[in-house]
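Model the whole thing, not chain by chain.
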Amino acid sequence: AQKVTQAQTEISVVEKEDVTLDCVYETRDTTYYLFWYKQPPSGELVFLIRRNSFDEQNEISGRYSWNFQKSTSSFNFTITASQVVDSAVYFCALTPPLARQLTFGSGTQLTVLP
Amino acid sequence: EAQVTQNPRYLITVTGKKLTVTCSQNMNHEYMSWYRQDPGLGLRQIYYSMNVEVTDKGDVPEGYKVSRKEKRNFPLILESPSPNQTSLYFCASRASGTGELFFGEGSRLTVL
């Protein structure tokens, strides 16, 4: 069975601080995909990144970066110089290819204060 | 524009009054799915469909029905809604094998 754990339920930072959201996963599959989704206060789910299990290179996209470490089964997400607009719930998720579902973590509520 | 469209976006109804939440995608995706989101529980899968006329239960299917008569549409039916079905519902679709889910904007349902 798969499992995704986001131990941080809520995080609050002041604007311009860096913040890291943790994601730890469990799976017996050797091939799988990891995702991060953002859910702003408006409620929609916004896709941020997909990473496959064979690609352990870290990825940077503007102020966002992702650290995938297979050895510790973690896929952490860092926002550099946070902004108020980054306030949202962030979900980490996991799936093997062709699977019937994406397994989500319970989410981390990030609040960025001005 | 590639999208998944859900309707209605907001609905307040009463116990026992049948309702349908529609979902349509324009990406020719084989796979479609329904999730519900509740505080502290993340997203949980209700039903999914691998293709037309192929549907199966997810983790929380009780009280729901689905159908997949056309590739683009995947309606969620609540035959006799109850207050514990008050939730935020998401429809999603995925091209076969890619893993990435495209989500609709969500439908917030309140059952009184």
